[in-house]
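Duplicate of #3305? Posting structure anyway:
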């Protein structure tokens, strides 16, 4: 993709701080592949978490990676536009696709049109002029006479007879299933061929055991008992080899007999603990006493840990091959036994890896002897014969959905025309949150609030993460709501609200996380005064709590002293005498403090009174700007930097630029409660608290302080007043 085609004239609109393409005509769609991707708002978006038809997103997501990218969207536009007489119909959309709008000048278009008419006919709507996604989605009614769907995968219930159905079930059990178009587990031709190949290999392998050939030793020397006899042989093979090897060493050098039988010290080490036949030290001992040329006893004088295994070997192998009365085994007898089982062992080694073994040899040979393979192949062939018909149905379904949904997706991908136009919600807007006298329209579903918030904080938007639930279902979801109006005085974790999703369902919403940023300039103007009031209130509460605690502790200590004196029979301690000097000093200090405050107020009043009348409001305004100006200016800067991109990037989008949420647009995303314009409002509140005299007394004290300050100013300050009074 390169820069836009000079022959095509594009229209752009300004929103979010960037120029966005305005798609209006079929010519725009035809040239969309030539529009520079740098001019697209998004480069990819997820297929989940959007208020958009999931089936349409799956059709566009051709590689199935869960993301819609620019090439996939371009291919969807190219395919759909080529099958419509007027591609502009994709932008207009519509719940139904008129049959007259389908272009029949190509083979695919003719098949789609014929298939659409057949679908409507099968649904009893042969005269209908248009077709909807609801019509194409119900494939069970479209082909009610067959369970085949043209994908070459046949489920067991598609078989016409019980034998074929059971065969398909066995193939699924051993070879694993494949999903057909409807999602049912079924069998493909490749699976069927692999199954019957395993059946033949497994049967041929058994055939070599049953008919070894003329002049060859039998593969099954014990007949049907050979597997169990071989297992008994294998259980003692290593230990018997060990025994005869030790006997040969003893014959080689008689001095080896003692150590090969273990020393007395080894037995003494075992004597001090409780023993059993399963003891590992006992199992490690030789099968029997080692001597040069000695036979291996099979009954008496054998290692007790191996008595059972040797008994099985004697009964299942030695008695049948060497004679029932054989009580001991010579080394040459041992060689004969191994030689007899050598063909069986080689046969086992050549065993094919076949999952069909679980079905049993008899069942496998029933498959090969019957016509099961031909029946499965024929069924798959009949299914594949419907492939063109079902592909046409899929194409109709794809075209109908693209006609309805593709234009909306383009307005939420190539541009954000829906979001900034505010005529309808964008695909990423999950609903509306009502909380604290406000409604928030920019609500986005999130999977993980902590992970999302880490990136979304860069948006500089005040965010509320709310956990939403409904009592009538176990489903829960988390939404991030942008708060762009009002103030945050009563917003905190744990605050409850109500969330309405795009289907109109209401959810209980609880704030679980807050990402704080400026909400508005108005809030920033008054925030210094609110912080000061909150700080003063907190300090007063702390001082009052500390004084209350000290008084309580003092009272408790005094009471404890008095009770202790009474218990000891002593007179209670007397109250300390009233200290007049100390009391006078306290009042003197209070007086000086009040005088200092009054003097300060007097100077302030003096300075204010000295101003010209027109300077006085400017002074008040200047003080106001001095206090609120920095906070308001900082908020203004941050509000100008609000960006939608990080909110969507944190959800898996790839936003291709700075999508600003400026102050006017942000104000439209959050509505603050207001009385209707024609409302009649009564200001009489029957439950309003009675006016307290405390406010009156406060104003009197304030006026007295101001008067005292003016008097002191007139007398030349506190020192001048004292001089005039003769002090």
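Output from current build:
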């Amino acid at each position: 993709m390169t820069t836009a085609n000079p022959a095509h004239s594009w229209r752009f609109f300004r929103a979010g701080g960037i120029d966005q393409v305005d798609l209006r005509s079929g010519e725009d769609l035809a040239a969309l592949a030539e529009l520079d991707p740098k001019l697209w708002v998004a480069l990819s978006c997820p297929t989940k978490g959007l208020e958009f038809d999931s089936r349409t997103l799956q059709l566009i997501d051709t590689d199935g990676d869960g993301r819609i990218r620019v090439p996939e969207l371009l291919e969807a536009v190219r395919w759909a536009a080529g099958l419509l007489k007027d591609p502009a119909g994709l932008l207009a959309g519509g719940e139904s696709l008129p049959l007259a709008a389908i272009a029949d000048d190509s083979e695919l278009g003719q098949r789609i049109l014929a298939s659409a008419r057949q679908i409507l006919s099968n649904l009893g709507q042969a005269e209908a002029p248009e077709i909807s996604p609801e019509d194409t989605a119900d494939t069970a009614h479209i082909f009610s006479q067959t369970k085949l769907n043209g994908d070459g995968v046949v489920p067991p219930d598609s078989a016409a007879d019980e034998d074929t159905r059971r065969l398909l079930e066995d193939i699924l059990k051993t070879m694993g299933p494949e999903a057909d178009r409807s999602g049912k587990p079924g069998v493909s031709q490749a699976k069927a061929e692999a199954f019957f190949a395993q059946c033949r290999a497994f049967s041929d392998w058994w055939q070599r055991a049953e008919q070894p050939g003329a002049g060859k030793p039998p593969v099954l020397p014990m007949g049907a008992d050979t597997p169990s006899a071989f297992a008994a042989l294998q259980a003692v093979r290593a230990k018997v080899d060990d025994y005869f090897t030790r006997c040969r060493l003893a014959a080689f050098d008689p001095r080896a007999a003692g150590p090969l039988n273990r020393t007395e010290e080894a037995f003494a080490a075992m004597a001090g603990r409780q023993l059993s036949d399963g003891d590992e030290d006992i199992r490690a001992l030789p099968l029997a006493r080692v001597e040069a040329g000695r036979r291996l006893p099979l009954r008496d004088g054998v290692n007790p840990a191996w008595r059972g295994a040797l008994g099985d070997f004697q009964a299942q192998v030695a008695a049948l091959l060497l004679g029932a009365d054989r009580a001991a085994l010579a080394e040459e007898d041992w060689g004969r036994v191994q030689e007899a089982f050598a063909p069986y062992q080689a046969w086992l080694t050549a065993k094919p890896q076949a999952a069909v073994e679980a079905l049993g040899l008899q069942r496998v040979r029933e498959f090969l002897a019957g016509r099961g393979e031909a029946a499965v192949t024929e069924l798959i062939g009949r299914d594949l014969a419907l492939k063109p018909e079902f592909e046409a149905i899929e194409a109709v379904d794809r075209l109908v959905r693209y006609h309805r949904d593709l234009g909306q997706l383009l307005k939420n991908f190539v541009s954000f025309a829906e979001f900034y136009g505010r005529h309808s919600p964008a695909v990423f807007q999950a609903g509306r949150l009502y909380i604290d006298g406000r409604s928030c329209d920019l609500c986005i579903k999130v999977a993980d609030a902590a992970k999302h918030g880490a990136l979304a904080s860069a948006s500089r938007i005040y965010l509320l993460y709310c956990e939403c639930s409904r009592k009538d279902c176990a489903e829960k979801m988390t939404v991030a709501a942008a708060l762009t109006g009002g103030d945050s005085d009563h917003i905190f974790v744990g605050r409850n609200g109500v969330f309405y999703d795009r289907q109109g369902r209401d959810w209980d919403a609880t704030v679980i996380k807050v990402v704080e940023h400026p909400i508005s300039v108005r809030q920033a103007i008054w925030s210094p005064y609110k912080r000061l009031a909150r700080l003063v209130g907190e300090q007063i509460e702390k001082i009052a709590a500390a004084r209350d605690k000290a008084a309580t502790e003092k009272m408790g200590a005094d009471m404890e002293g008095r009770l202790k004196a009474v218990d000891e029979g002593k007179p209670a301690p007397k109250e300390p005498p009233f200290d007049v000097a100390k009391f006078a000093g306290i009042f003197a200090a209070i007086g000086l403090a009040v005088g200092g405050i009054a003097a300060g107020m007097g100077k302030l009043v003096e300075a204010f009174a000295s101003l010209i009348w027109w300077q006085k409001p400017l002074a008040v305004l200047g003080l106001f700007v001095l206090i609120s100006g920095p906070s308001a200016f900082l908020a203004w800067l941050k509000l100008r930097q609000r960006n939608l991109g990080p909110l969507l990037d944190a959800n898996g989008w790839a936003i291709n630029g700075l999508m600003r949420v400026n102050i006017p647009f942000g104000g439209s995303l959050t509505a603050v409660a207001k009385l209707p314009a024609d409302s009649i409002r009564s200001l009489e509140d029957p439950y309003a608290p009675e006016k307290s005299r405390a406010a009156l007394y406060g104003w009197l004290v304030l006026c007295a302080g101001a008067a005292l300050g003016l008097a002191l100013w007139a007398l030349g300050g506190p020192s001048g007043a004292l001089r005039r009074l003769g002090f």
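Confirmed duplicate; merging threads. The chain has 27 helices and 19 strands. The CA atoms of residues 258 and 290 lie 9 Å apart.
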